[in-house]
Design brief:
By secondary structure, the protein is mainly α. It has two domains: about 80 residues; about 60 residues. About 85% of the residues lie in helices and about 0% in strands. Helix 1 packs antiparallel against helix 2 and helix 3 packs antiparallel against helix 4. The radius of gyration is 20 Å and the shape is flat.
Length: about 140
C-alpha cells in the first residue's frame, strides 16, 4: 500500500470517527435538552435541584457537542470546510435577521402569539441543511 493511499485511508477513518462522535454527542445533547425541558413538569415536579442539575448537564453536553463539531470541522478537507463555512454563515445571517424580525412582529402587534425559539431553531436547521446541499452541488 502506498503512503498516499494509507494517508487517504487514515483521513477517511478519522473523518468517519469524527462524524460518528459528533452524531452521538448531538443525540445526547438533544436527549438532555428534552430531560431539562420536560423533567421538571413530568418527572420531578419542579424541584429546584434536579432542574439545576438537568440544565447544567445539558450545558456541559452542549459544550461537548460544540467541541465535537469543531474537531469534525478541523478534520474536513479544505473544500468541505469552505462548504460548511458558507452554510454556517448563511445560517447565522438568516437566524439573526429572521429572529429579530420575528420578535418585532409580536412587539408591534402584527402577530398575537409569543415567538418561540423552537421556530427559529427549525428555520436555522433547514437553512443549514439547504446551504450544505447547495454547497455540495455548487462544487460538484
Amino acid at each position: 500500500m502506498s503512503t498516499s493511499a494509507a494517508s487517504a485511508n487514515d483521513w477517511t477513518c478519522s473523518n468517519k470517527r469524527n462524524t460518528i462522535r459528533l452524531g452521538y454527542t448531538t443525540l445526547v445533547w438533544v436527549l438532555t435538552t428534552a430531560v431539562a425541558a420536560f423533567g421538571p413538569e413530568f418527572i420531578w415536579n419542579f424541584a429546584t435541584w434536579p432542574t439545576i442539575i438537568a440544565v447544567l448537564t445539558n450545558l456541559a453536553i452542549g459544550f461537548g457537542m460544540i467541541a465535537a463539531n469543531r474537531t469534525h470541522l478541523r478534520g474536513l478537507d479544505e473544500l468541505q470546510q469552505k462548504i460548511f463555512l458558507e452554510a454556517g454563515a448563511l445560517t447565522l445571517g438568516v437566524g439573526l435577521v429572521c429572529g429579530i424580525s420575528y420578535e418585532l412582529l409580536e412587539d408591534i402587534k402584527l402577530i398575537s402569539f409569543e415567538p418561540e425559539i423552537a421556530h427559529l431553531v427549525m428555520l436555522m436547521s433547514v437553512t443549514f441543511v439547504g446551504g450544505m446541499i447547495a454547497g455540495h452541488r455548487k462544487y460538484r
